[in-house]
Design brief:
The structure is a single chain. The protein has 208 residues and is mainly alpha-helical. It has one domain (2-207). It is 74% helix and 0% strand. It contains nine helices and no strands. α2 packs parallel to α5 (113-140), α5 (113-140) runs antiparallel to α9 (185-207) and α8 (161-181) packs antiparallel against α9 (185-207).
């Protein structure tokens, strides 16, 4: 009987196991539960504070090992400007022409939108481009760029199809920028712009 449960060469990296379980649970809690009156505040707690606490007190590591730093800020700012400059015309076009994006995003636009998207995404980006990407990279190397993009894409299910289909490649791109700069800050800035600007473009189209 003991041979039935004998598994050869089955060894797990404890940190990878912890990150995989933790990130999966946090995504599920975010989906099913409301912890505060504001969902954006929930996400700051779940995706920024909880990972930081685990890194510091659980892994006994400095958060900068997971991209919590400015990193190569010159390259980061240059890449941010480049991507934003290329993305803005495309986002405006999609916001003006794609009815599914208009229906989903126009109702979210308001004077408070930049603040809410900031709160919504700062933890989100550290979660994916910090904890997951750099946590997996220690064991999987550059393969972490694709591995971390999978849950990122799945987390977009229920959003407009065009957006969701693009996220496996968008997640890779965000990860690549974090990898180059050793920081989650620049993917966050890009994502913050994209989210805010598409809401603005959709709202302007709906108002016409």
């Amino acid at each position: 009987m003991r041979h039935l449960f004998k598994f050869e060469n089955l060894h797990f990296d404890r940190e990878v196991v912890a990150i995989t379980i933790l990130t999966t649970l946090l995504l599920l809690v975010d989906y099913y539960e409301r912890l505060t009156p504001l969902k954006e505040i929930d996400r700051v707690g779940l995706y920024l504070f909880v990972p930081l606490l685990v890194i510091i007190f659980g892994f006994r590591k400095h958060p900068r090992e997971f991209g919590f730093q400015l990193g190569d800020w010159k390259a980061g700012l240059a890449l941010t400007a480049l991507v934003v400059g290329l993305a803005a015309p495309l986002l405006w076009y999609l916001g003006q022409t794609d009815t599914s994006l208009q229906h989903y995003y126009a109702r979210h636009w308001g004077v408070q939108t930049p603040i809410l998207t900031f709160l919504d995404l700062i933890g989100w980006e550290f979660f994916f481009r910090g904890l997951l990407l750099f946590g997996y990279a220690r064991v999987f190397g550059a393969h972490a760029l694709w591995l971390h993009a999978v849950p990122f894409a799945l987390a977009h299910v229920s959003k407009p199809a065009l957006e969701t289909y693009s996220t496996i490649f968008g997640g890779f791109m965000f990860g690549l920028i974090a990898w180059r700069t050793r920081s989650f800050v620049y993917p966050f800035l890009i994502h913050w712009f994209i989210a805010t600007f598409i809401m603005f473009a959709a709202a302007m189209a709906s108002a016409n």
